[in-house]
Design a protein that fits this description.
Shape: globular
Low-confidence stretches: none
Bound molecules: fe (ii) ion
Number of domains: 1
Order of helices and strands: HHHHHHH
Number of strands: 0
Structural class: mainly alpha
Radius of gyration: 16 Å
Largest sheet: none
Distance between the termini: 29 Å
Helix content: over 70%
Mean pLDDT: 94
């Protein structure tokens, strides 16, 4: 798969995140704070989608002929389907949905960190700045969601994600 096509696959996974969080905001609309925070998370996923679309232009300008492995992405997409199905199950509680949000983010960060080294300079800088350096704010929203819904384990998982992103930036 060409690098441009690989980044487009990542962009489509970000778009799935937009729908995933929007769906949770709608489903748990009766919890106004949680719904607002899920909408914020959805907006961040929309910005990730836009950024990866932009990165493709830069890859094309850089000549973007090199190829990149895609095997890991098939497993990621399958895991995302499982999380989506669990979130859509009729008996999923608010607390379980918050834990599924952490599950989603815990597969997103390694996916992006795995992509970064394959990107040419300018696109790499764009993704590092727009997705990795910005991610502690995304995880702060996740921690806020966990506090608002009383799921302390997810507060810790959000902190671990933020730490991992900071470490990756060096
Ligand atoms: Fe994302
Ligand atoms: Fe995310």
């Amino acid at each position: 798969m060409s690098l441009g096509a690989l980044v487009e696959r990542h962009a489509q996974l970000e778009k799935r995140g937009v729908g995933f969080y929007r769906g949770l905001a709608t489903r748990f609309a009766s919890h106004a704070t949680a719904a607002r925070l899920w909408r914020e998370m959805s907006n961040t996923e929309a910005s990730h989608f836009a950024l990866l679309e932009l990165a493709q232009d830069w890859i094309a300008m850089a000549g973007g002929a090199s190829s990149a492995p895609t095997d890991a992405l098939d497993a990621v997409a399958a895991r995302m389907s499982e999380i989506e199905a669990a979130a859509e199950a009729v008996d999923t509680t608010l607390e379980a949905a918050v834990a599924l949000t952490a599950d989603w983010e815990e597969i997103e960060l390694p996916r992006i960190l795995e992509l970064v080294p394959h990107l040419p300079g300018k696109a790499q800088g764009l993704v590092l700045a727009g997705m990795v350096a910005e991610s502690p704010e995304h995880y702060r929203i996740l921690a806020e969601l966990a506090k608002a819904t009383d799921v302390p384990a997810v507060v810790e998982r959000a902190a671990a994600l933020a730490e991992r992103a900071r470490t990756a930036l060096g």
